[in-house]
Amino acid sequence: MEHNVVSPFDLFWHKFKKRRTALVAAVFIVFLVVVAVFAPLFAPHDPMTTDYAQSMQPPSLEHPAGTDVYGRDILSRIIYGSRISLAVGFTSVLVGALVGVTLGLISGFFGGFLDGLIMRTSDVLFAFPGILLAIAIVAILGPGLVNVVVAVSVFSMPTFARIVRGSTLGLKETLYVRAARSVGASRRRLMFVHIMPGTLSGVIVYFTMRIGTSIITAASLSFLGLGAQPPTPEWGAMLAESRDYIGVADHMTIFPGIAIFLTVLFFNLFGDGLRAALDPKLK
Amino acid sequence: MLRFFLKRCLAMIPVLFVVSVLAFAFVHLLPGDPARMMAGPDADVATIEAFRQQLGLDRPLPEQYVRYIGKLLVGDLGISLRTKIAVFDEIALRYTPTMVLALCGMAWSVVFGVLFGAIAAIHSGKWQDYTAMLVSVSGISVPQFWLGLLLIQLCAVYLGWFPVAGYSGKWQELVLPSLTLGATVAAIMARFTLSAFLEVLGEEYISTARAKGVRERLVMWKHAFRNALIPVVTMIGLQFGFLLGGSVVVETVFAWPGLGRYMIEAVGVRDYPVLQALLLLYSFHFVFINLVVDMVYALINPEIRYE
């Protein structure tokens, strides 16, 4: 009898590619990463060069997205800004995931006092809207991009911890984990080799969904003057600079905003597609 | 019900304790000497010592904490470093504008969110569904400060329908900021309503209603919609905290004289007593909102009460 072996990846890919929006989103994200990495090749001008004769020029062939108050090319600044947004979004979620997954594993695996401590702390963090928590952390650490990463990663942690704790509780009673335990696998091995991979599909989905939120939060902090400082080409900071010229130079407001919006939109659509393909509860 | 209420109130105590410790610790978490931070960068040694004594920072930490709580209970939140006015009075001045903005934003988001979600559910799989969900995912993805700037650009500067910024009590000033604040939550609500609605539509009593010949419109609005609203009600409470957080950004965009903008100003000038008080105030609100959500949920769903 012929037997078709379907790998988990094939199954995932079959479901994922049915959602065309998610595919488009994936392509856009790849494109964005390429642009960010090779920013100097894509940017038509230097993002920092000022030219007061060219101040606040509307979009033209020379400057497709116009220029800002200092005559800097906005398109080039958006292209360089993608490096910051992607790096901040990705790093902060990664840090949040690493700490959150570990805490969730510990919480679910050991239970008892540690579990109570970790879960109550995450309850408190959870009750706090991310942006307020981030502002409090930046108030302690001082403004700046690195501190924004710290601030944004802190509020990703509790959710990762919860997701992983939930699946750990289920997985630690499964037959294969008990079998591994019975042949003498160490606790660390049980946690990280046997249980953790089983929790990853939930983590991956949330990871993708979170990047969008983190990019918005980081840009908001920069907009509020707490993140990237001028003259850094950061999208939120660029919008903060544009605020005084509404009605005078509208392109300064429109283009950096579109960059944030599309980036976050495609990360969210991509996350939706991943969830549809990976979540066993959704068919 | 009363027993559940009391139990739930008791459960709040450890959370409130942790929150108060964190707020207390806030000043001590700042890098460097709190007395020096409070006194400002140009203060001489004598001034710093005076500050230390006055704030009780020379005492052991547990004693400081007890004093801090004692002051809190009589409404003493300290003195603003910038204005030298009692923080309590500063906050009282800005409390109403923020609440007005947040409630108004909530109202928009419930109206639009439930409407879009219901439309998407009723026309599931048709263009109305896709349009509503496209609008919704866009609403989640759009940064609030940008949406605010765009609305100012379009509705205030070009069309002149509403004032650009500020608040003096007129309703016209409230429209753009509250729309901006409500947008993200509206989008979340729409998604949530859609899934709640679809779940209800799969229930057997819907099939029964259809089978006995109830008109489709009546099935949707009377049988399904009402039941779908139950989880949505609790969502309203949970999202209110998110709205309060968002008000920090929106108030800054619209120069709104509320707590959120005050907080950003306080961060800028390192007015730590103000920050400490605001963090505590916000946390208390969230804890309280969670309590209310739980109570409403218990009222709607009796199973919870007997857990």
Describe the protein:
The complex is a heterodimer of chains A (283) and B (307). With 283 residues, chain A is an all-alpha fold. In chain A, 71% of the residues lie in helices and 0% in strands. Chain B is mostly helical. The longest helix of chain B has 38 residues, at 216-253.
Oligomeric state, counting identical vs distinct chains: heterodimer
Using only C-alpha atoms, the radius of gyration of chain A works out to 22 Å
Number of strands of chain A: 0
- Largest sheet properties of chain B: none
N-to-C SSE series of chain B? Answer: HHHHHHHHHHHHH
* Alpha carbon gyration radius of chain B: 24 Å
The poorly predicted ranges of chain B are none
Mean pLDDT of chain B: 83
Q: How much strand content do the residues of chain B show?
A: under 5%
Shape category of chain A = elongated
Structural topology:
The complex is a heterodimer of chains A (283) and B (307).
Chain A: H1 8-16, H2 20-37, H3 39-42, H4 74-110, H5 112-127, H6 130-141, H7 145-154, H8 157-171, H9 175-182, H10 187-223, H11 235-242, H12 251-278
Chain B: H1 2-29, H2 34-39, H3 45-55, H4 61-73, H5 87-122, H6 127-141, H7 144-158, H8 172-201, H9 204-211, H10 216-253, H11 259-269, H12 272-300, H13 302-305
Helix pairs in contact in B: 1-12, 5-6, 5-8, 5-10, 6-8, 7-8, 7-10, 8-10, 9-10, 10-11, 10-12, 11-12
What would the keywords be for this entry?
heterodimer; A: 283 residues; mainly alpha; B: mainly alpha; flat
In short:
The complex is a heterodimer of chains A (283) and B (307). By secondary structure, chain A is mostly helical.
